[in-house]
Amino acid sequence: MIRSLQHVGITVPELEVGRAFYQAFGLLPHVQGNDLAFRCEGRQQDQIRLMSGPRKRLSYVSFGVGKGELENFTTRLEQHGVRVSDGPFARQLDGIWFQDPDGDWIHLCEADSQPTRIVTPPEINTPGEYRRIGKRGCGLESHARRVSPLRLGHLIKFSPDVDRQVDFYTRVLGMKVSDRAGSILAFLRSAGGGDHHIIAFARSSHTGLHHLSFEVGGLDEIELGARHLVEQGYRSAFGLGRHVAGSNYFHYIRDPWNSLCEYFWDIDVIPKDDADWEPWDATPEQVTAVWAVSPPPPDFVLNFEQP
Ligand SMILES: [Fe+2]
C-alpha cells in the first residue's frame, strides 16, 4: 500500500527563483546534478525537486510503499492497463513510474517516511488548566524567530475529472477517501492511516499544482512564516484560518509561479483501523474553512499552470 508522500518534482524555468522562495519558506536546498532539491531541517528526505524546463509544471509526485511491494504494484497496474516505465526524467530514481488518468507522472519507491524533527509543544494555559505558571509564553526575541517546516504533508492537484482520479487512486493504488465535495474536491489518505489527506484533487479545466503543504510546530510558526514571506515580497493568498476538512490551521502564500505553498498545523489523523471514520460529502464552502481572517480570494481556486 502507499504509505507516504515522499516528494514532488516541479519543472521551473529558473532554479534560482525557486531557491530564493523555498529558502525564504524555511527549506534547505542542496544541488543534485542539474536539479535543486529541498529538505526540511533535521530530516533526511527530499521534499521538492526542482528541474529546469521551459515553464513551471508539477512534473511528478513520489510516494513511498512498503518493502517488497513494488512488484505487486507493477502487476496490479498492468492488470489495469497502466504502463509501467522508466519515467521521462533525466535523473534516475529507484522505483517504478507510470501516469495517472490525467497523464501526470507518479513515482513509487520502497521507502519509509523519514522521522521528523521533534518539536516540544508550547505550554498552553487553557481555561481551568493553567500549566504555564511563572513563565512567559513569548520572549522579546520572539519577533525574530525563523520558521523551519517539519515535513511535506500533502499536495492538492488540479484535475479535469476528480471522480476519475479518485477511482484510480482508491481502486488501483489503494488509497482511501477521507472527505469530499462531490466531483469538485476530494481528499485522500494512505490506507495505512495517518494524515487526513496526503493528496487531494480539485476540479479544473486541466491538471496542475494547487498547493504544497508543510507542517510547522504551531500556530505562531504559521504566522511567523507567512509574515516573513510577505516581508520578502511574496503575496499572502489565504489565511490565517482553520480548515474543516482536515481541521488544520493554515496560511497560504503564492509561490513565484502562482501556485500556493501552505503552512499547516494540527491536522486530523485517521488510524489504520478507521471503522469509525465517516467521510463527508459536503459543499466546497462547507469543507474549506471554519473561519479565516478574510474569505478566500476569487483566484484561490484558479489554476495558473499552463495546460
Ligand atoms: Fe492543504
Could you give a quick summary of the protein structure above?
This protein has helices at 15-25, 70-79, 162-172, 219-231, 284-288; strands at 2-12, 28-32, 35-39, 46-52, 57-65, 96-99, 105-110, 125-126, 129-130, 151-159, 176-181, 185-189, 194-195, 199-203, 208-215, 236-242, 249-254, 260-265, 269-270, 280-281, 291-292. The protein is of the alpha+beta class and 307 residues long.
What series of H and E elements makes up the topology?
EHEEEEHEEEEEHEEEEEHEEEEEHE
Strand order of the largest sheet: 20-11-12-14-10-15-18-17-16-21
Structurally, how many domains make up the residues? 1
Query: Helix count?
Result: 5
By CATH, the topology is: 2,3-Dihydroxybiphenyl 1,2-Dioxygenase, domain 1
Strand content: 35-45%
What is the SS-derived class? alpha+beta
- CATH homologous superfamily (4th level) name: 2,3-Dihydroxybiphenyl 1,2-Dioxygenase, domain 1
User: Which small-molecule ligands are present, each listed once?
Assistant: fe (ii) ion
**What is the general shape?**
globular
Cα Rg = 19 Å
Gap between N and C termini, in Å?
Answer: 31 Å
Pfam family, one: Glyoxalase
Organism: Cupriavidus necator
InterPro entries: Glyas_Bleomycin-R_OHBP_Dase, Glyas_Fos-R_dOase_dom, MMCE/EMCE_epimerase, VOC_core
GO molecular function, one term: dioxygenase activity
